[in-house]
């Protein structure tokens, strides 16, 4: 039987890596699009990107979401059954510093892919990586597919635009185009400047005396955190549905950043005490001689002009229609992230 062909924009990212491995296991031929960087960083794909190009079921091409001609040519050459658009300037805080770029890549980037599909008259299916950040200052608790969006960052606005463009092309041109509305999902492969990886990495290093302190921003924001491995399965299931549609993917549980820190400390057997309020909150350790050492403080640098304070998803539609549910608990995920950082430290 001929292999199914998938094309992944954003293949070098956290989800791109998990999705590539997932699709290879499902016997797909996987093509990834990688943008040019001054250093070649494909570390998240090392296990699958070692074989010779021709013989491999995983191949990469250079392209950029800012460049319509590269997108058009790659899609034309590959003629995929499924396209996953995971590429984005995905950091919410940074989107306040580079709003034009964020809009170009996240909003117009999705439009460029959809335009190429339309212009080439392809029958392929399209997945758009939407975000719970689109709910912003939430208008309903928990959030589901019917909850109105209320975005509060350039990142969220760009994702709302891509979301509606996907629906527009589905309805106007009958393209099988679907949106995932994914809540935060993490893993050992998460970017180092997202809060979960930053916390785990720093606390492992503090435990090993390789770092003195961890500086954070808003400790009181709450997120609904799942594991990227579970969430890429949902991305695939969304494209296997009978009809295109939009799906919330979440765990339905939420924790604050402070609670996340507490769980990591418990697993690492770091005995911290919290003190203070707001930006003056600190966490300290007590030495054997009773002296206190502050290991966590807040720093203005990590606060956003406007933060999303509370997110929690209701994924009943995905549970019912896609038979999807999260399998990896927060505790299991944190353990995996800790083990990964310890392994990294031991390599040095
Ligand atoms: P990520 O690790 O930041 O990966 C983003 C990917 O996009 C990387 O491969 C990156 O390439 C690529 N990219 C950035 N700019 C590009 C450009 N101009 N042209 C082509 N590729 C470009 O993000 P992720 O966590 O895997 O998330 C995947 C997608 O889901 C993103 O769209 C994100 O916004 C969305 N999302 C994520 C979450 C989450 O919690 N993880 C939740 C909801 C939605 P480089 O490697 O070269 O940087
Ligand atoms: O880990 P974060 O940067 O993730 P955020 O902003 O929720 O965005 C992630 O999830 C979205 C889905 O909802 C994705 F669409 C998006 O692409 C990305 O993957 O921050 C989480 C929370 C925020 O409230 C932030 O203010 O943690 C708070 N925080 C506190 N201290 C911090 C820090 N965030 C970061 N990055 N760094 C800190 O030091």
What do these coordinates show?
This protein has 348 residues and is of the alpha/beta class. Helices cover 38% and strands 18% of the residues. The chain has helices at residues 14-25, 68-78, 92-95, 99-120, 154-173, 195-207, 228-240, 257-268, 316-321, 330-347, and strands at 5-9, 29-34, 58-62, 82-85, 125-131, 177-182, 185-186, 214-216, 222-223, 226-227, 246-249, 255-256, 273-275, 282-286, 292-298. The radius of gyration is 21 Å and the shape is globular. The model has no long low-confidence stretch (mean pLDDT 96). Bound molecules: NADP nicotinamide-adenine-dinucleotide phosphate and ligand G4F.
Q: Secondary-structure element order, as H and E?
A: EHEEHEHHEHEEHEEEHEEHEEEHH
How many β-strand runs?
15
Distance between the termini: 46 Å
Tell me the fraction of residues in β-strands, as a range. Answer: 15-25%
Which helices and strands appear, and what pairs or packs with what?
Layout: E1 5-9, H1 14-25, E2 29-34, E3 58-62, H2 68-78, E4 82-85, H3 92-95, H4 99-120, E5 125-131, H5 154-173, E6 177-182, E7 185-186, H6 195-207, E8 214-216, E9 222-223, E10 226-227, H7 228-240, E11 246-249, E12 255-256, H8 257-268, E13 273-275, E14 282-286, E15 292-298, H9 316-321, H10 330-347
Parallel strand pairs: 1-2, 1-4, 2-3, 4-5, 5-6, 6-11, 7-10, 8-15
Antiparallel strand pairs: 9-12, 13-14, 14-15
Helix pairs in contact: 1-7, 2-4, 4-5, 6-8, 6-10, 8-10
The protein binds NADP nicotinamide-adenine-dinucleotide phosphate and ligand G4F.
NADP nicotinamide-adenine-dinucleotide phosphate (NAP) is lined by residues 9-16, 35, 37, 64-66, 86-90, 105, 129, 131, 182, 184-185, 191.
């Amino acid at each position: 039987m001929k292999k199914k062909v998938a094309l992944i924009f954003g293949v070098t990212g956290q989800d791109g890596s998990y999705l590539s491995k997932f699709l290879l296991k499902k016997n797909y031929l996987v093509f990834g699009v990688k943008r040019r960087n001054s250093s070649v960083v494909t570390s998240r794909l090392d296990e699958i990107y070692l074989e010779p190009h021709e013989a491999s079921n995983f191949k990469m091409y250079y392209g950029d979401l800012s460049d319509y001609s590269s997108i058009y040519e790659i899609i034309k050459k590959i003629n995929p059954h499924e396209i996953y658009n995971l590429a984005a300037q995905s950091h919410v805080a940074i989107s306040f510093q580079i709003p034009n770029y964020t809009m170009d890549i996240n909003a117009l980037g999705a439009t460029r892919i959809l335009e190429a599909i339309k212009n080439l008259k392809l029958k392929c299916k399209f997945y758009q990586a939407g975000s719970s950040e689109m709910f912003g200052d939430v208008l309903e608790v928990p959030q589901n597919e019917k909850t109105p969006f209320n975005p509060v960052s350039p990142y969220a606005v760009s994702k709302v635009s891509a979301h509606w463009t996907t629906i527009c092309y589905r309805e106007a041109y009958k393209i099988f185009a679907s949106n995932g509305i994914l809540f935060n999902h993490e893993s050992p492969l998460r970017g180092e400047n997202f809060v979960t990886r930053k916390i785990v990495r720093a606390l492992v290093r503090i435990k090993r005396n390789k770092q003195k302190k961890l500086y954070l921003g808003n400790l009181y924001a709450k997120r609904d955190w799942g594991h990227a491995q579970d969430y890429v399965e949902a991305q695939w299931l969304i494209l296997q549905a009978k009809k295109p549609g939009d799906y919330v993917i979440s765990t339905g549980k939420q924790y604050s950043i402070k609670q996340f820190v507490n769980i990591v400390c418990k697993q690492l057997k770091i005995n911290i005490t919290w003190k203070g309020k707001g930006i003056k909150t600190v966490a300290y350790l007590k030495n054997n001689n009773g002296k206190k050492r502050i290991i966590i403080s807040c720093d203005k640098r990590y606060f956003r002009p406007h933060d999303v304070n509370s997110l929690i998803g209701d994924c009943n539609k995905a549970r019912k229609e896609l038979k999807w549910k999260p399998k990896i608990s927060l505790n299991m995920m944190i353990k995996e992230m800790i083990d990964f950082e310890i392994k990294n430290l031991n390599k040095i």
